[in-house]
Design a protein that fits this description.
Blueprint: E1 3-8, H1 14-27, E2 32-36, H2 42-52, H3 61-85, E3 89-93, H4 96-106, H5 111-122, E4 129-134, H6 137-151, H7 163-179, E5 184-188, H8 193-206
Parallel strand pairs: 1-3, 1-4, 2-3, 4-5
Amino acid sequence: MFFLAFEGLDGSGKSSLMNQLQNYLSLNNISFIKTREPGGTDIGDQLRDIILVKKNEVPTPRAELLLYEASRAQHVDLVIKPALQNKKWVLCDRFTASSVAFQAGGRQISEDQVNWLNNFATDALNPDLNILLDLTVEESHKRRQKRLLEIGEVEDRMESEANSFHNRVRESFLIQAKKKQSKWLVLDASKTPENLFDILIRALKDRKWLE
């Protein structure tokens, strides 16, 4: 069993790639769960609404970080660790790298503080592989606008932040990937979903995680 976290800007194609991998694992009779952050539990979903829904009163940067970490602690204890203990793969849409990117990079909170809280919330659990779908901020914005026109999905509070914020987020993801290359797979999200899936499967087979 392996723990994979899918990271990147909104609109980068994380959901599509996760769905393709989910289908592959199912066809090969490999047990897995698919989950997301913030969320994954009843408490996590309630916190997700507090974090992401636009309201008159929004969380301050430090409160926002703590809400993410509270959701993560519940998620790890009730969902992720039990799945791994039961020999299941875990496919997670965002994990600790997102807090470093969005709260340390985007909000400019101390990265040391974010890392400490990540470690506390997860009880030192880390993904076996972070899969970064790298996309420019401009292309991310175009995709989100297309999604709005096609299905009427309105941007959440984080998505609607300024481009400068999202540029810092993207830069943080790339820096994290460069620091720990063995734990990251960086994909060019401008490629087709089919190309991205082929690259991912090849990488997992190279690691001997898949036959």
